Amino acid sequence: TQLLEQSPQFLSIQEGENLTVYCNSSSVFSSLQWYRQEPGEGPVLLVTVVTGGEVKKLKRLTFQFGDARKDSSLHITAAQPGDTGLYLCAGDTSGTYKYIFGTGTRLKVLA
Amino acid sequence: DVKVTQSSRYLVKRTGEKVFLECVQDMDHENMFWYRQDPGLGLRLIYFSYDVKMKEKGDIPEGYSVSREKKERFSLILESASTNQTSMYLCASSNRKSSYEQYFGPGTRLTVT
Questions:
Q1: CA A86 → CA A5, A43, A45, A60, A90, distances in Å?
Q2: Which of A31, A36, A46, A98 to mutate to test the interface with B (most CBs of B within 10 A)?
């Protein structure tokens, strides 16, 4: 089974700090998605990246897809308590609709 | 507003019981998925379906079966529940038009005692 590893596994920071979450694999992905999951809810899609080197911004969140399409990062600027949640990356290796999910990064932003 | 609903938010069953988890989507999506979510392991795909009556095994199908008799409904069946199937179960749906974004239900937390 292919594995998508995320780091760090846990992150607790103060409001206003910056942070980066990483998603790494030995496999090449045709596309990669980032989701956020809040307690008691299912994951919700934040972004999909498909081109190596692609950078997408969603307000204070910046997503980057690695040049070789094997890794991705999520950077949050000036984190807020509302950013608290579980962040999951998910990669598609075959160009189909089946995504492999990463192990998750649990973020807590303290006011 | 798109919606995926799951029949129960919490479920407690005994070892050996047959368990049915139901998932319904109202978006006319062709693809539906069942995952289990465990701490430190992320989401692992159990089964998925790309059309009515069609199903394929995911990464961890052992101990599970599925049924999709109608497009909007995808059921996960635990034939004989075991304690190692205690987990959070998430259903999702997707289609080509939405670039295969997966829409998830709220999850069913199953405890097998």
A1: 14, 8, 12, 17, 13
A2: A98
